[in-house]
Amino acid sequence: MQQLIECVPNFSEGRNPEIIKAITEAIQSVESVQLLDVDPGKATNRTVVTFVGAPDDVVEAAFRGIQKAAELIDMRAHSGAHPRMGATDVCPMIPISGITIEETVAYAKKLGEKVGKELQIPVYLYESAASTPDRRNLAVIRAGEYEGFGKKIKEKKWKPDFGPAKIGAAGATVIGVRDFLIAYNINLNTTSVRRANSVAFDIREKGRIKRKGNPILGEIVKDKEGNPLRTPGSLKGVKAIGWYIEEYGIAQVSMNITDIRSVPLHIAFEESQKSAIRRGMVVSGSELVGMVPLKVLTDAGKYFLRKQKRSTGVSEKELIHIAVKSMGLDDLVPFDPAQKIIEYSLRQNGGRLVDMNLVDFADLTASEAPAPGGGSIAAYVGALGASLGAMVGNLSAGKRGWENRINYFSSYAEQGQEIKRQLLHLVDEDTLAFTQIMNAFRMPKATDEDKKARSQAIQEATIYATQIPLKTMEVAFESIELCKAMAKKGNPNSISDAAVGALCTKTAIQGAWLNVRINAKDIKDEVIKNQILEKAKAIAKKTDSAVNGILRTVNNVIG
Q1: How far is it, in rounded angstroms, from Cα 528 to Cα 464?
Q2: Count of domains in the chain?
Q3: CA 511 to CA 66: how far, in whole Å?
Q4: Is the pLDDT of residue 412 over 60?
Q5: How many CB atoms lie within 10 A of CB 355?
Q6: DSSP letter string, 465-483
């Protein structure tokens, strides 16, 4: 798996588009990194930039962005609603794929050392990269902000991890490694910052200071050492504060969700809504600052569908739509999944077969081009079979009088959606495998060393091209149990659809079996060849009897 790191630097400029453009152009000058999002805020006077790439490329791109920000942003003249201490205020790195948090820490330190040494900017390491436990928390490091850091940095306790112990016009920068963090704002139907803060105190982990009697004016309750006691909020790992956004004329609760496994986005929304209602307000919508993983929104979509007592086995697109509408993510500005979901931004527009319309896909298949071929078509037919199984599951879950069986059918529909997703991926993967074989045959063969490398590349590509249709067989076979269950217990009005789904699955498996055999004949390693053929043959043999059983069930019902 390719190593990928996401980097989300926050620059202390949100109003001057020329400065923002200069910084993002510096980042993009490292061609191998991909800029995913640029999110400026006028009220906060802050821009959140998101980009991804290989570790060393991300380090270089981040350095260039920090360097450009230091050239163009003078913190002595900066003001904004968000706490800040430097031109590049914070620069977190997040492991995305193929790399651990521990491995990512090494790259954060590499960046910090480079910034401190070459740019003479004080650098503090935080979160997983922190040099001491008291530097894990960004808020603790940033306390005092730019205006107070001239004095703070001279304290022995606050000597920077890298760079000089003095503050210049660019301020100081915090660099670190963390799990994925969601910056999320809740919109309230009020202009009162005090009321927004009351909601923030209800939900954030550290809650509010305990007081006797009046919760605002009452005497502070302290422990034996004289420290104020606190009443914790409802959401662990959540930081939140209330503020007023003049641009939209509303107060918001601005929060950072630092552990999305413990506090999913939809739970943060729901808890905010409960608090607001208790205090005579309502949540009118919300907004995501920056990007999120796809799962954040699909999980939210499923959560709200369950509340509606509907099947969760709908398409990815529908889940996202439900999540957006349920949380009002389009309340202030239109919500564009391609701009807000990391996986969607990484997709190359027009580069995938499954992004084509049906006519164009059929026309390309029927052309003189050798790909897409039978392997891709087999995977696509299998995806249609899984889709039909999911459809019957959804129709059954929504059938009047079957309300007590929603979870049963919904789980099958979800299974069908996941099988469909994997098979659609294999549509393109099969064509990619063919391309790799062609590229291997085009390798030079002028010397003995060239010939050896070419031969090895051809064999590796051939094995891969054989494993892909085998994978298609394995994934498609999972649809048989789905279609069988839907044929026996699903909505009787859709029983024929379950049978057609089973027939599509059979076609997919038989087609992929043909591709396995024709590709395997060129594999020289007899052990690998026989392993693949034995697995594929066993699946093909089980398929015929299983599908015939489904057809008998359906024919007995419809006559």
Answers
A1: 11
A2: 3
A3: 54
A4: yes
A5: 14
A6: HHHHHHHHHHHHHHHHHHH
Query: In the chain, how long is the greatest CA-to-CA distance?
Result: 88
Task: Give the Cα separation of 428 and 114 in Å (integer).
Answer: 41
User: Both 196 and 169 in a single domain?
Assistant: no
> CA geometry: angle at 111 spanning 110 and 117, to 5°?
90
pLDDT tens digits, 314-370: 999 999 999 999 999 999 999 999 888 877 876 654 568 888 889 999 999 999 888
The pLDDT tens digits of the residues spanning 30-68 come to: 988 989 889 999 989 999 999 988 899 999 999 999 999
Angle between helices 406-441 and 448-489 (to 10 degrees): 160
Cα–Cα dist 185/321, whole Å: 19
pLDDT band for position 1 (cuts 50, 70, 90): very low
Query: How far apart are alpha carbons 58 and 27 in whole angstroms?
Result: 9
List the CATH number of the domain containing 83: 3.30.990.10
Q: How much is the pTM?
A: 0.74
Domain boundary among 158, 177, 196: 177
Write down the pLDDT at residue 173: 97
Looking at residue 348, its pLDDT comes to: 54
Q: What is the CATH number of the domain that holds 504?
A: 1.20.120.680
Which of 56, 82, 179, 259 is an active site residue?
Answer: 82
Residue 430: active-site member: yes
User: Both 164 and 265 in a single domain?
Assistant: no
Beta bridge partners of 288: 184
Gap between the Cα atoms of 460 and 158, Å rounded: 54
Task: Decide the pairing of beta strands 123-127 and 283-289.
Answer: unpaired
pLDDT at position 347, please? 67
- What lies within 8 Å, CB to CB, of 321 at 6+ separation is 301
The pLDDT value given to residue 157: 93
Q: Per-residue pLDDT averaged across 108-115, rounded?
A: 98
221-235: per-residue pLDDT in tens?
887 888 888 889 999
Cα 33 to Cα 345: distance, rounded to the nearest angstrom: 13
Distance CA 224, CA 208 (A): 19
Of the listed ranges 53-67, 126-140, 211-225, the least confidently predicted one is 211-225
- The token pair at 226 is 């004289």
**Together in a domain, 154 and 28:** yes
Residue 198 domain boundaries: 182-346
The answer to whether 254 and 290 are in contact (CB under 8 A) is no
425 is catalytic: no
Q: Which of 39, 161, 430, 497 is catalytic?
A: 430
